[in-house]
Amino acid sequence: MQIKQKITNIAWKLILPVLLIVIWMVLSSLNIWSTYILPTPYMVWSEFIDCIVSGLIWKHVGMSLLRVVQGFLLAAVVSIPLAIVLTASHRMRTLSSGMIEFFRHVPPLALLPLLILWLGIGESSKIAIVFLATVYPIFLNALMGFSEVDGKLVEMAHQYGLSKKQIFLHVTIPYAIPYIVSGLRIGLGYSWRSLIGAEMIAASSGIGYWILDAQTMARSDIVIVGIIVIGLCGIISDALFRWITNRMLSRYMTGGDVYGA
């Protein structure tokens, strides 16, 4: 029954993409626009296969993936402990709240010119952009999770004689895990979005650079291939993240699924 339901869900998810491709094929056959403006699905598919065979896709995807992983992990390592510190210290939270709110509303790409001046156009500036885009959703969700622990659970733990350390390990962290996982998942999506913009401005490799380079050569078919690759990378990384978190953390979740699906 579950397999049948999964197949049905996949079929429903494919309806809109298939419909979009059909509309695309019809518009291409009408020759309203030249292939320079709107390449045919066959042209895009052919270019996609050529890029796979030549290894061009793997080169750019590999570079982008490396930057995403580095920036994402750095953001997780910084934001979760920071959320713990600010939860434990009301004074520190009050002191830092203004600065946190200010930079939360500044788009990471707005800082790219400064990052290039400070860090150069190498890998550091692009990893920094991913870090800045990712750190806030992870931090804010973790802070919410640690701050909103049910007081009744804490009181019950005190009655059972648990120490502060034991309460933190056995009550606070399990309660905060769903919030942290949600923040990590949102941050992962932000990582890809911010990196592509950074690669379009200051890079000589990566998916963003590849798309911009194709645009300068008037290769709209390659541009569309690049867009498709970005979407696929996002879908695959999100699915992998969900699989890992469900396997590792399902015991903390009602129904055994981190995402309730």
UniProtKB/TrEMBL annotation:
It is found in: Cell membrane. Its main location: membrane. It is a multi-pass membrane protein. The chain crosses the membrane at residues 12-33, 68-90, 102-121, 127-146, 167-188, 194-212, 224-244. Residues 61-241 form the ABC transmembrane type-1 domain. The keyword NAD does not apply. Keywords: Cell membrane, Membrane, Transmembrane, Transmembrane helix, Transport. One of its GO terms (cellular component) is plasma membrane. Gene3D superfamilies: MetI-like (1.10.3720.10). Pfam families: BPD_transp_1. GO terms for biological process: alkanesulfonate transmembrane transport. The keyword Coiled coil does not apply. InterPro entries: MetI-like, MetI-like_sf. Belongs to the binding-protein-dependent transport system permease family. This is ABC transporter permease.
